[in-house]
Amino acid sequence: MGKVFNTDGYCDPEINYMVNLTERLEEIRAMVDAEKYFVINRARQYGKTTILTALADYLAEDYEVISLDFQTIGSQAFESEESFAAAFSEELLDLVHEFPEEIEERLTAIAEKTARTVSLQTLFKVLKAWCQKSEKRIVLMVDEVDTAADNQVFLDFLAQLRAYYLRRRKMPTFQSVILAGVYDIRSIRRKLRPDEEHRENSPWNIASDFLVKMSFSVEDIEGMLGEYERDYHTGMDIRLISSMIYEYTSGYPYLVSRLCKLMDERIADEKGFPDKSGAWTREGCLGAVKMLLEENNPLFDSMLGKLNQFPELGDVIRHHLFEGQPVVNAVDHPAVRNARMFGFLKEENGNLKIANRIFETRLYNYFLTQPGAQKGAVYQLATLEKNQFVRNGQLDVRRILEKFVEHFDDIYGEQNQKFYEADGRRYFLLYLKPIINGVGNYYVEAQTRNQERTDLIIDYCGIQYIIELKVWRGNAYNERGEEQLMDYLDYYHLKKGYMLSFNFNKKKETGVKEIVLGDKILIEAVV
């Protein structure tokens, strides 16, 4: 059986197409050689388990590598020192093939709770003796470590690791300890008693910064697709497809693999894509994007679950998406910190932005489908009228703008400036959604999203349409917007563009008009 793209669990280079991790492993190896203790803190399905698995093999020749997963230790194990020490010892006995005889006997006594005392102190004395007797230096890796983050026994476990680390010059201990999880355990929020407020307090302040880049570059994706192409000879333009995948995913590992898996296994069976050669094209990639955005998967479920769990997080994301409010890179702001930790936001050139187009569109769709949104008049009108907006398989964007102006003016025409700035663009997206739903997708160019301007790109049946959504700031500003849109049309090799202005001036002239600017046509709508 040949290799496949994998999105279920960690990737194995023997059976899965995957990016080359060698450079990343070399960087992490340097940290291990330098006796660093550190945390691999990344969002869900960001390749943490894959990198830990690969690292264990990479280090195996020179180190004794112990790979634990706290998900395999039940919650009861964290109820007391005794139960945790026993469970931890049992895991070690299962994982390590050969122990010094004395160490195996002592660990067995702890696991079976027949030792004179069973506690963290007892456990760590055995671990110290093992580090002393082992022919190789020992590296401890623990995945899903945040499973037990809000737990005193876990904090005590970290404290013991820290104490031994600080005394490593005088007593044997682990060469390196690597902890992996979503939550940054260096700033654990814990609540030890029902009457106690959450407080941040972690003994893991010895951790070194982990700066290894785990997202994939265009070149990483090219290498993976190059291996696939050598097997299947589809004739794909590897650079084009790799760049498109990166544009939509920003290199988020799960999303990269998921798009590839969809093109390989499902797009080829879709109408218009009779074989793999047809699937690995620009149109096939857009079809995979559409399919991904419409599916439920563990990553999206986790992401949307966080919005319900942390309401302030949802507020920050919603205001950024619909109102163009910048997200201040404030490390002490809980909502911003959570947004970065969970993978919603990323830093780019000192600014925070939505992590990738896939997340962005999924988040737009989530907020646009909240209870009551689709019962609104503007959504209902678009649903009733959507058949008139497609002609010969192409989207009639001018007609969409004309009808939106008509309906918006009737329903919301008397609203004030604050309404136009905060809700105008949201209502247009609500109007657009049922029209393109099931056939097309849209995304926002992040660099244009601010409180005055948003550039919306629609993909519909392989054709792209660009609509600039903006708040009216006078004729001079409008002319600058026209110039910017013309530059954007050049970038996308288009001859026609669209502009929708939300004008709160009571003397405004609403409607739609056509302007010829050089070799391009601009359709301008004002509400």
Strand content: 15-25%
Q: What are the segments in which pLDDT stays under 50 over at least 5 consecutive residues? A: 190-199
Number of domains: 3
| Average residue pLDDT | 88
| Terminal Cα span | 59 Å
Describe the secondary-structure layout.
Elements: H1 22-33, E1 37-41, H2 48-59, E2 63-69, H3 81-95, H4 101-111, H5 120-133, E3 137-143, H6 152-166, E4 176-181, E5 189-190, E6 199-200, H7 218-232, H8 238-249, H9 253-265, H10 276-279, H11 282-294, H12 298-309, H13 311-323, H14 334-341, E7 345-348, E8 351-354, H15 357-368, H16 377-385, E9 390-391, E10 394-395, H17 397-412, H18 417-436, E11 440-444, E12 453-460, E13 463-471, H19 475-492, E14 496-502, E15 511-517, E16 520-526
Parallel strand pairs: 1-4, 2-3, 3-4, 13-14, 14-16
Antiparallel strand pairs: 5-6, 7-8, 9-10, 11-12, 12-13, 15-16
Helix pairs in contact: 1-2, 3-4, 4-5, 7-8, 9-11, 12-13, 13-14, 13-15, 16-17, 16-18
Can you describe this structure?
By secondary structure, the protein is of the alpha/beta class. It folds into three domains: 22-200, Rossmann fold, CATH 3.40.50; 218-295; 371-526, no CATH class. 46% of the residues lie in helices and 16% in strands. It has 19 helices and 16 strands. The protein has helices spanning 22-33, 48-59, 81-95, 101-111, 120-133, 152-166, 218-232, 238-249, 253-265, 276-279, 282-294, 298-309, 311-323, 334-341, 357-368, 377-385, 397-412, 417-436, 475-492, and strands at residues 37-41, 63-69, 137-143, 176-181, 189-190, 199-200, 345-348, 351-354, 390-391, 394-395, 440-444, 453-460, 463-471, 496-502, 511-517, 520-526. A six-stranded mixed sheet has the order 11-12-13-14-16-15, with helices on both faces. Strands 1-4-3-2 form a four-stranded parallel sheet, sandwiched between helices. Helix 9 (253-265) packs across helix 11 (282-294) and helix 16 packs parallel to helix 18. The longest helix is centred in the C-terminal third of the chain and has 20 residues, at 417-436. The chain is elongated, with a radius of gyration of 28 Å. The chain starts with 21 loop residues before the first helix and ends with a strand.
